[in-house]
Design a protein that fits this description.
The complex is a heterotrimer of chains A (679), B (342) and C (275). With 679 residues, chain A is α/β, with parallel strands linked by helices. Chain A contains 23 helices and 28 strands. A seven-stranded mixed beta sheet of chain A has the order 5-4-16-15-14-6-7, sandwiched between helices. Chain C folds into two domains: 8-99, Beta Barrel (Elongation Factor Tu (Ef-tu), domain 3), CATH 2.40.30.10; 105-234, 3-Layer(aba) Sandwich (Rossmann fold). In chain C, the strands form three sheets. Chain C has a seven-stranded mixed beta sheet with strand order 10-9-8-7-11-12-15, with helices on both faces. In chain C, strand 11, helix 6 (211-224) and strand 12 (231-234) form a beta-alpha-beta unit. The two termini of chain C are 36 Å apart. Classes of the chains: A alpha/beta (679), B alpha+beta (342), C alpha/beta (275). Chains A and B meet through strand 1, strand 2, strand 3, helix 7 and helix 22 of A and strand 2, strand 3, helix 8, strand 11 and strand 12 of B.
Chain lengths: 679, 342, 275
């Protein structure tokens, strides 16, 4: 008899955090349907959500630990693999010091697992070299918003979009990256909200927009400064709010003087009249909200871009109320959580600083261990250090830097330079190919835990089936390694781990499993009675007063020149999630986009005699890639776009690892390339 | 005139319990803020007052993923093993008239001399106990397409809620069999009850939308073939797949092979005609490579092409498509604007 | 009830390279009885299974009859066909079918036939052409117009020569792009219409090729005056089941796997996205 079960859980793909039901027949996950009452999904999902189950039983799932012997992987027992890892990591730690080790935690793993991983790095390995892919996407958000508001998280909730009279979407291809959030935008537009888009590409959402400011890549600060210049010039800003709730305004204001609409048009290509119209729309609205994503964060000026968005919101008082705010749309389903859990080189959980002695002592006491003092290295810095042989051993969990890091050639040599590499994942990813030991983790359908979505919603994932093969929950594996390295980390369940987190983390103070039963809680939730927080900075900013920062337009690190005359933008697409470890093994999704391509503007294509489907070579100073041409108006002349998901046509062979000085995020959105036919 | 009984409200659960001794009982259950069809482990879980589930019971006949066969491959060729025959009979209780009609529509596609055993065997071992809708929901337009709010034929058992009891009708042997699993719970229907039931159904029909002749609908669709609205709708569509996955009469599927070390299976899984890859051939040619062509395909298949082939509309007016569409297309609105009916 | 989704074992008997990416396979169903009972009409297709990779719908390229084998002409263009091209003689594949409606041969008896094909389109037509030649007296004049991209892309080159020698038969070949030794016509297949007198009287045109070719050839045929019902086409579509259930080949009220793949132009011209 078929036993049919339905388990309510949270989607494993993007940060929208949709609730969904997994259908289990006879111990196999065979389907996904939306949760109807969930505040975000509301009975809907995107194509990835509807197929979130497809990869779970894929035959390529890692079902046994693998140890590399003579260049080839051989199956091993857990004991063998764990002993080997514990031994080698201990050895490297002893011989070369704790900071010769580095850990990549995972935005795809649960909060509990990120907590355990950073605890492992600090208490067991003795290093703060722990980071994860938030570095590559929203580290500028965390940095910028913390500087401006005191808190780096989405200020409002997803459903707040309904209450916004004006929605400003900057650097977010929302219909492709966060479709369910785009659905909220469309609903609001249907109900009369106005939509302004700032994006270099003719994204799908712009069809529904009142205004599309199609700026040159990397000129966001100029545009936003221009908007503010217009607002102040036409006295549309909010002096009351500024006076009461903020500081630093005068300095910022003085800096805006040269950013007249005409000057901005010169820099950015945005027509002065459009800029003025956009400024008026946003400033005059009763409630206006800013939604942003990689388009502004992944720059050497990423932190500045975010600071400027914060400036804009504070200038008009569009923050601290429903339907307003500065809202970063976080990519991974648990990147918010991974940050909240302190899988970062400079923070413990809840953004308590490593550099703060009181915080460090609190964790030292809780964990009965001396904790490292100096701030650790970030993702890119760790890769560089590995290439320099300063880092000798790495433990990478649920991350695939061989596709997702910039300048992959460099990543390859970094990984090859390591003395010892452990990769823990659910499939043998491109990065896992370089490992000395590969550990099989189990998927989101096979364990319990929590994810925190972009709107700070901490929600449950629930175990629907037993782990496939010999795979295990990530937290269980790490605890085992710790134990063999002489440090006892032992928990009965993921819930027990969350109890420890809650005790150490004020913003998660009131989070416990029996309160997460239906649709989770939004932090800050400091106590058991607290109902969670829909929007932040209501009466005061997290840091007290909101701070304006004067930021100036700076050019991207690598601009086009004669040798490399095109700007390359890289980004996501609808059908795939990131490096395709999961969606590449979901047949319905993979069918839609089985291979990479490069978007080329028709006028450029004509000039180079390139037609749709032709093979082209795209080259940069870092490397070259052969891929297929897609001739489309979506990109402006002299700009090209490549999705970064495809290993066989890896956009990140070309990207520039230049970093934002504060956030250390790479400039994925702008680098210089040349394009030519290759057949 | 169908055979009819009255079933006291308090006797409903005992009846389900009696059925549960022999059949698997699948029924709607309240959970996490909604109602979901699932296997009952305890009859008291059953939800009796609800509009309709988000996911139609088609999922028990065309599951989201299904193994067609497993195989082994080796130098000498391959061996195929069909999945084990499932023989436990089941009752799907609380299924609404629209979803019952949907299954008779799916029957037309999956029977015939190239019949689909996977679907037909599930139909064979299932008995449907439908619950008529006394108050159709706002988004429903079952009346327009003749799929509700009640049923006159093509059902096993139909319950209509009256005061204090259910009016019970059967229209098949399978249905009769269920009554006789616990005959003492049922009383022969009185004339009064029958009249009450007719009144309730009349009332429900008044609240439902007005019936539209399928051929007439197909003709009207033809007349609207070159409307600009299809391009507009195509532009809106975000390709979420929801309308197709949740539609009780949609059945398109993809077939994929999975193999590891010479052992594998051929699966079929829910597919959706609104995504470009649905018609894209190896080599890249795609006969429907615009969103306008694709969304038109779905509307026309439902309300014109299927009529030409099978004589009925491939739509039961349940409104789930509109509820789940990320882009908020309102199918009922489109339907009514084509027919001109309110 | 027979399960139409189960493939039967077929052994590859011979493999012949037609071009650098196209091969003709001859196959025999492993079960002798089944092979004996394997009847099909020209224009029908089978689903070829490479278990683990998937299935591909391929037209039968040989004339039916008591020959004890059947032929498929396959271009290497996707996962399944790539895997098929890796196989050798005596390897086994899965076959389901035959599916589809086949050419309306009864309507063609006593008529003149003009075959127009491009590239791989000649493969399904070959099955009909050879059937016609096996019953030569039943049919009138046979004109075969065939075009490929380059001389190296021409299929069945040996057979083209044999056909040319048949009674009351004209074979004209063209390539889009000539090369060194090519002496023949250069230009798209519609240029061949000028090289021969195609009469519409008592004539049926049968067309198969890539979508863009359909449009130009049909336009040409209509210009010459062919009635719409006398233009026969065979269509290609993504097909997953072959029995009208998976939905992929649906065009208007028709299924290419059930009502086709052979259609006449009159049926198709008003169907959305058919051509």
């Amino acid at each position: 008899m078929t036993s049919i079960k339905k388990i309510l859980t949270t989607c494993v793909y993007c940060g929208a955090g949709c609730g969904l039901w997994l259908r289990v027949d006879n111990g196999r996950v065979i389907g996904t349907t939306p949760s109807r009452a969930h505040p975000v999904s509301q009975g809907r999902l995107c194509l990835k959500g509807w197929n979130a189950h497809q990869f779970v039983h894929h035959p390529q799932r890692l079902i046994s630990p693998l140890i590399k012997r003579n260049g080839a992987f051989a199956e091993s027992t857990w004991d063998e693999a764990l002993d080997l890892i514990a031994g080698r990591l201990s050895e490297i730690k002893q011989r070369h010091g704790s900071d010769s080790l580095g850990v990549f935690s995972s935005a795809k793993c649960t909060n509990e697992e990120n907590f355990i991983m950073m605890k492992f790095a600090r208490a067991v390995l003795g290093t703060n070299n722990v980071d994860h892919c938030a570095r590559l996407c929203h580290s500028s958000t965390v940095a910028g918003m913390t500087m401006a508001f005191g808190s780096g998280a989405m200020t409002n909730s997803i459903t707040d979009i309904r209450d916004a009279n004006v929605i400003l979407v900057i650097g977010s291809n929302t219909t492709e990256q966060h479709p369910v959030i785009a659905a909220e935008i469309l609903r609001a537009v249907d109900n009369g909200s106005r939509l302004v888009i700032i994006d270099p590409r003719l994204i799908r959402l712009s069809k529904f927009a009142d205004l599309h400011l199609r700026l040159r890549p990397g000129t966001d600060v100029a545009v936003i400064n221009g908007l503010m210049n217009v607002m102040i010039g036409e006295k549309l800003h909010n002096p009351g709010f500024i006076g009461e709730r903020t500081e630093g305004f005068d300095e910022m204001r003085a800096n805006l003087q040269k950013y007249t609409a005409d000057y901005v048009e010169q820099i950015t290509g945005v027509p002065a009249d459009d800029l003025r119209a956009a400024a008026r729309l946003y400033a005059k609205a009763e409630r206006a909200t800013i939604l942003y994503c990689m388009g502004i964060t992944q720059h050497t000026t990423g932190t500045d871009n975010v600071l400027d968005c914060a400036n804009l919101a504070m200038l008009c008082g569009h923050i601290g109320r429903e339907g307003t705010g500065v809202n970063p749309l976080r990519g991974q389903q648990n990147v918010q959580g991974a940050c909240d859990m302190g899988a970062l080189p400079d923070f413990y959980t809840g953004y308590q600083r490593v550099a703060d002695e009181v915080s460090r002592q609190k964790f030292e006491q809780a964990w009965s261990a001396k904790l490292p003092v100096s701030i650790g290295l970030t993702v890119i810095e760790m890769m560089n250090a590995a290439a320099e042989r300063e880092i000798k051993g790495m433990y990478i969990m649920g991350e695939n830097p061989m596709i997702s890091n910039p300048d992959i050639t460099h990543v390859k040599s970094a990984l090859e330079s390591l003395d010892f590499l452990v990769v823990q994942d659910i499939f043998l990813s491109e990065t896992a190919q370089f490992a000395d030991v590969v550990l099989p983790a189990c998927s989101f359908a096979e364990r319990n835990g929590t994810f925190t979505s972009t709107e700070r919603r901490v929600q449950r994932i629930r175990k629907a089936i037993d782990p496939i093969g010999a795979s295990r929950p990530d937290w269980d594996i790490i605890c085992e390694v710790a134990r063999r390295m002489g440090y006892t980390m032992s928990y009965d369940s993921a819930e027990a781990i969350m109890e420890e987190v809650t005790a150490l983390t004020p913003i998660y103070g009131g989070i416990c499993y029996n309160r997460l039963d239906d649709f989770g809680l939004q932090w800050p939730c400091p106590s058991q009675e607290h109902p969670g927080t829909k929007y932040l900075h209501k009466k005061a900013f997290a840091r007290g007063k909101g701070k304006f920062h004067a930021v100036d337009y700076r050019q991207p690190a690598e601009m086009p020149d004669e040798q490399y005359p095109f700007i390359l933008i890289t980004g996501r697409i609808y059908y795939h999630f990131h490096t395709r470890t999961m969606t590449g093994r979901s047949e319905i999704l993979n069918r839609e986009a089985p291979e990479g391509y490069v978007e080329i503007n028709p006028s450029d294509a004509r000039e180079m005699n390139i037609r749709n489907g032709n093979k082209v070579k795209v080259s940069s100073r870092r490397g070259q890639v052969i891929t297929k041409a897609l001739v489309t108006e979506m990109v402006a002349p002299k700009t090209v776009f490549m999705p970064f998901n495809f290993g066989e046509a890896a956009a990140n062979m070309l990207t520039n690892p230049a970093l934002d000085p504060v956030a250390k995020i790479p400039e994925y959105k702008v680098c210089a390339v040349s394009v030519e036919r290759s057949d | 005139m169908t055979l009819a009984w009255e079933l006291d409200r308090q006797k409903l659960l005992p009846w389900l319990e009696a059925l549960g001794r022999e059949f698997e009982v699948i029924a709607p259950v309240k959970t996490h803020g909604e109602v979901v069809f699932t296997s009952l482990s305890d009859v008291s879980q059953v939800a009796l007052d609800y509009e309709n589930t988000l996911v139609p019971p088609k999922e028990f006949f065309l599951p989201p993923t299904e193994t067609m066969f497993s195989f082994t491959t080796n130098k000498g060729g391959f061996n195929i093993v069909l999945p084990e025959e499932e023989d436990r009979r089941r009752v799907i209780f609380g299924i609404r008239p629209c979803d019952v009609t949907a299954l008779s529509i799916l029957d037309k596609v999956f029977s015939g001399d190239q019949g689909d055993e996977y679907y037909l065997s599930k139909r064979e071992r299932s008995v449907l106990v439908a619950l008529g809708c006394n108050r159709p929901a706002e988004r429903c337009f079952c009346g327009s397409v003749g799929a509700g709010p009640s049923l006159s034929d093509n059902f096993d058992v139909l319950l209509t809620e009256l005061d204090g009891c259910y009016f019970v009708e059967v229209a098949s042997e399978k249905g009769t069999e269920l009554i006789y699993k616990a005959p003492s719970l049922f009383q022969e229907a009185s004339e009064e009850a029958r009249k009450k039931k007719e009144g309730v159904v009349e009332q429900a029909k008044k609240l439902a939308t007005r019936p539209v002749d399928p051929l007439e609908m197909a003709r009207k669709m033809e007349a609207h073939f070159n409307d600009s609205r299809w391009a507009q709708l195509g532009e809106r569509c975000l390709e979420c797949g929801g309308c197709t996955y949740l539609c009780p009469t949609c059945y398109c599927f993809d077939v994929v092979d999975r193999v590891k070390d010479g052992k594998g299976s051929r699966l079929r899984c829910w597919d959706c005609c609104l995504v470009p890859g649905f018609t894209r051939m190896a080599g890249g040619i795609n006969p429907r490579d615009s969103a306008k062509a694709r969304i038109k395909q779905r509307f026309y298949h439902k309300w014109a092409y299927f009529v030409a082939r099978f004589g009925v509309l491939q739509c039961v007016g349940c409104g789930r498509c509109s509820e789940t569409a990320l882009c908020h297309i309102d199918w009922k609105e489109v339907f009514q604007s084509v027919t001109g009916e309110p | 009830m027979k399960n139409p989704y189960i493939p039967y074992r077929a052994v590859i008997k011979t493999i012949r390279d037609e071009t650098c990416d196209t091969r003709t396979f001859s196959l025999v169903l492993q079960d002798g009885k089944r092979q004996e009972e394997f009847q099909y009409k020209p224009g029908q297709f089978v689903e070829v299974s490479l278990l683990g990779y998937g299935e591909s719908p391929i037209s039968l390229a040989s004339a039916p009859g008591k020959r004890g084998y059947f032929e498929l002409c396959v271009r290497r263009v996707g996962r399944v066909t790539e895997a098929l091209h890796q196989l050798s003689e005596n390897d086994i594949v899965g076959i389901r079918g035959p599916f589809g409606n086949g050419f309306p041969i009864e309507e063609m008896v006593g008529r003149n036939l003009v075959f127009v094909s491009g590239g791989l389109g000649l493969a399904p037509l070959r099955s009909l052409i050879n059937t016609v030649f096996a019953n030569r007296r039943d049919f009138g004049k046979v004109t075969i117009l065939y075009g490929a991209r380059t001389p190296d892309d021409l299929l069945f080159q040996g057979e083209l020569a044999v056909w040319e020698d048949r009674n009351n038969t004209e074979v004209l070949v063209t390539v889009d792009v000539g090369s060194g030794y090519w002496q023949g016509n250069v230009g798209v297949v519609t240029t061949l219409f000028k090289k021969t007198a195609v009469s519409i009287h008592n004539t049926i045109a049968i067309v198969c090729g890539p979508p863009i070719m359909f449009r130009f050839v049909i336009r040409e045929l209509l210009k010459i005056g062919f009635p719409e019902e006398s233009i026969i086409l065979t269509l290609e579509r993504l097909m997953k089941c072959g029995v009208g259930k998976c939905g992929h080949c649906n065009i208007g009220p028709k299924y290419v796997c059930l009502d086709g793949p052979v259609f006449n132009y009159k049926e198709l011209k008003d169907l959305p996205d058919a051509l």
